[in-house]
Amino acid sequence: MKTIATIGTIFGEDVGPELLGHLVRIYPEGLNGPSSFRLSLPLDDQRTGYVLRILEQAGLSKWPGGQATYDRKSCFRFDVHREYDESDYSGAEYLWMQPEDHVEGGFQPERDAFVFRSEDLRKKCSFAHDDDDGVLVPSRVKAMLERAQLRGVQFRSIVVENDSDSSPECSGEHVDAWWRLASDITLPPYSPSMKVLDRHGRRVPRGTEGYVEIWEPPYRGVELHYLRSEIVSKEFDIAQTLEWSAPSPLLRGLVVSKKFYEICRAHRLKCGFVPVRIEPG
Questions:
Q1: How far, in Å, CA of 254 to CA of 98, rounded?
Q2: Which of 97, 159, 175, 201 is most buried as measured by Cβ atoms within 10 A of its Cβ?
Q3: For residues 36 and 11, what is the distance between their CA atoms, to the nearest angstrom?
Q4: pLDDT for the residue 65
Q5: Are 279 and 193 in contact (CB under 8 A)?
Q6: What gap in Å lies between CA 71 and CA 201, rounded to an integer?
Q7: Alpha carbons 188 and 237: distance in angstroms, whole number
Q8: Are strands 195-197 and 75-76 parallel, antiparallel or unpaired?
């Protein structure tokens, strides 16, 4: 895994030509046009540290995000993201599903249903995420996963709006049927090490089964963390998180086993994953 630091564009007109020139001398590749600078380097690269120190010495601070005021003359955007490789995935005991392909549609509270247009379900992919980050699979993938006899796997119907004016259909009633991937097994709470907040930014008591927001600053994305003694007590190949970060409790994160991942690789089923971190305890 590589950990990449990113500093958003800094303009010479905001910080002055002297500071801009100093940054460019440290990292010439960061020159972005005639009078601006940005950085994308491994977090542990010496140049990353030098640039951060120079900015802080000049009185600039990292923008905290959220609703905080962003003043280009006094702060800069900074985040960190992880770049995984195959060894990270194959070495993980569990992985969090993060499909890269997207299908428009999702949960409609007024109808209490997951609604999609048939024209949006013509994508040729193995897994997809909807507008609410729910996971969808076409019938061919559903059949493969059913044959594998995976523990905890479920498939739930969706409502498909036809391109014509005819009435909506449910999964299985049309040729290229899609299904919502789910599980009847629920995971234990996230590890106490995770930053879990409510809608108002307040800490949520561990074990709260409800809507939460999860953060791992300065990382752009988060990794899920669980205590080993708790997660090994659950026998599963796919399980849903106790907490959810979507409009409906029907939409929870899906964590899969190494067996599930290996089946995807064997059948060349494309899907994004994030390794799950297992902590002592």
A1: 9
A2: 97
A3: 4
A4: 77
A5: yes
A6: 22
A7: 15
A8: unpaired
Burial degree of 124 (CB within 10 A; 0-12, 13-18, 19+): exposed
**Can you read off the two tokens belonging to residue 167?**
């009435």
Amino acid 16 reads G
3-state DSSP assignment of residue 236:
coil
The 3-state DSSP composition of the chain as helix, strand, coil percent (nearest 5) reads: 20, 30, 45
CA distance 81 to 104: 26
In sequence order, the β-bridge partners of residue 203 are: 197
Question: How many angstroms separate the first and last alpha carbons of the chain?
Answer: 25
Q: What is the pLDDT of residue 176?
A: 55
C-alpha count within 13 angstroms, C-beta hemisphere, residue 263:
18
DSSP for 130-156 reads -TT--EEEEHHHHHHHHHTT-TTEEEE
**pLDDT recorded at residue 174:** 45
* Owner of token pair 């097994």: 185
Residue 220: per-residue pLDDT: 85
- Residues near 101 by Cβ (< 8 Å), separated by ≥ 6? 123, 125, 127, 128, 129, 270
Which are the contacts of 60, defined by CB distance < 8 A and separation ≥ 6? 15, 74, 75, 76
Q: In 3-state terms, what secondary structure has residue 264?
A: helix
| Residues 6 or more apart whose Cβ sits within 8 Å of residue 211 | 198, 199, 243, 244, 245, 246, 249
Q: Which residues contact 104 (CB under 8 A, 6 or more apart)?
A: 116, 117, 120, 130, 131
Give the whole-angstrom CA distance, residue 11 versus residue 17.
Answer: 9
